[in-house]
């Protein structure tokens, strides 16, 4: 398996603060069946001012430690990138790294507030030649009122990444509901761990692959954790990769379902 979203580098963002924890995460990933991990620290203006050169230096240093420890985990570069006015320019300049130097990059919307003109921003990124992989929409507190926007963004060419733990219930009932709905509606391109710690948020991916297989079949489960991630790393055109499955038949509760059950502040 290939994990394209992991905060495994020590001391660079809100992931592990100590090298020992990063090593523990790497061992867990390998034991789980992950062979390639994208190191994707936050690039969040005003909070985590990471850039490509610093991320690459941290990967090089961690790669050396993995070799010394005999941990067979391949590392590739990336970033968990937040929206900023100069994002297209920084992607073009290379200061914001894409996934393994490809056209694909992780694009993280704000967790608690829907950003204005999000669809316009995604369209601008697509027309600039980049493919935003929207991270964990199932965990956003505002998805209940904006789900059609994600459907439209996928239709326009954006990709979606679900967090593995959301699908298996590790983040609670609400993210699991939305993860399952996004899968069933044929909107999810890849699964990834978004791991931040060896204990609190470990890099488990196999259990989510099996959960996806039960809903969509074994072939699509492999596409979610291997085929499409490998295509991203190889910079394959989206049209040349396995298409998303058709939406499963059967109605789902519509807008306001989770607000009805839990109130507007539930997350």
Return the structural class: alpha/beta
Q: State the order of secondary-structure elements, H for helix, E for strand.
A: EHEEHEEHEHEHEHHEHHH
Task: State the helix count.
Answer: 10
Strand order of the largest sheet: 3-5-6-7-8-9
General form: globular
Helix content: 40-55%
N-to-C span:
29 Å
> Rg, please?
17 Å
The largest sheet is:
6 strands, parallel
CATH arch. level architecture: Alpha-Beta Barrel
Let me know the CATH homologous superfamily: Metal-dependent hydrolases
The average pLDDT is 93
Please identify the top-level CATH class.
Answer: Alpha Beta
Integer count of domains: 1
CATH topology: TIM Barrel
Task: Provide an overview of this structure.
By secondary structure, the protein is α/β, with parallel strands linked by helices. The chain has a single domain, classed as Metal-dependent hydrolases (TIM Barrel). 42% of the residues lie in helices and 13% in strands. It has 10 helices and 9 strands. It has helices at residues 19-32, 52-69, 87-93, 118-127, 143-156, 164-167, 173-184, 206-216, 218-233, 257-262; strands spanning 2-6, 36-39, 42-43, 74-77, 80-82, 104-108, 131-135, 159-163, 190-192. It has a 6-stranded parallel sheet with strand order 3-5-6-7-8-9. Strands 1-2-4 form a 3-stranded parallel sheet. Helix 5 links the parallel strand 7 and strand 8 (159-163). The longest helix has 18 residues, at 52-69. It is globular, with a radius of gyration of 17 Å.
